[in-house]
Specification:
Strand order of the largest sheet: 1-4-3-2
Low-confidence stretches: none
Structural class: alpha/beta
Strand content: 35-45%
Number of strands: 8
Distance between the termini: 29 Å
Radius of gyration: 14 Å
Number of helices: 2
CATH superfamily: 2,3-Dihydroxybiphenyl 1,2-Dioxygenase, domain 1
CATH architecture: Roll
């Protein structure tokens, strides 16, 4: 079996503000209710929460992680998000997770979801 794509589903407190955030800060395009960026494989479906208590971002762990093709693209995404006013959870850094060594950064959206971008690098 070959995975063609994956869409992360986020329960949000205000779907219109969340949509505007992803379109403005992360330059996502919307097609059939999915916000995406082709250049990094990011695809998110926003769902309006019935109650604010239902919005529960992970603690200290990404809610969404997008693997990027190369370091140049990662740097471009970082600078673009920074120019668009992203709230960074952390700037680009190198981290080991299990057997993998990643260069990555992460931002927080309006509901506190942690959106990570990165790539595996040589050990």
């Amino acid at each position: 079996m070959h995975l063609l794509s994956s869409v992360s589903v986020l329960l949000v407190s205000d779907i219109e503000l969340a949509r505007l955030f992803y379109q403005t800060v992360l330059s996502c395009h919307e097609v059939d209710g999915i916000l995406f960026r082709r250049d990094c494989g990011l695809a998110i479906k926003l769902v309006q929460a019935e109650k604010i208590e239902d919005v529960k971002p992970n603690r200290n762990l990404w809610n969404v992680f997008s693997y990027v093709e190369d370091e140049e693209r990662l740097d471009k995404l970082f600078h673009e998000a920074k120019a668009h006013g992203a709230l960074f959870a952390y700037y680009p850094k190198i981290r080991e997770i299990g057997d993998e060594k990643l260069k990555e950064f992460a931002i927080r959206d309006l509901d506190g979801y942690l959106i990570g971008f990165g790539l595996a690098i040589e050990r």
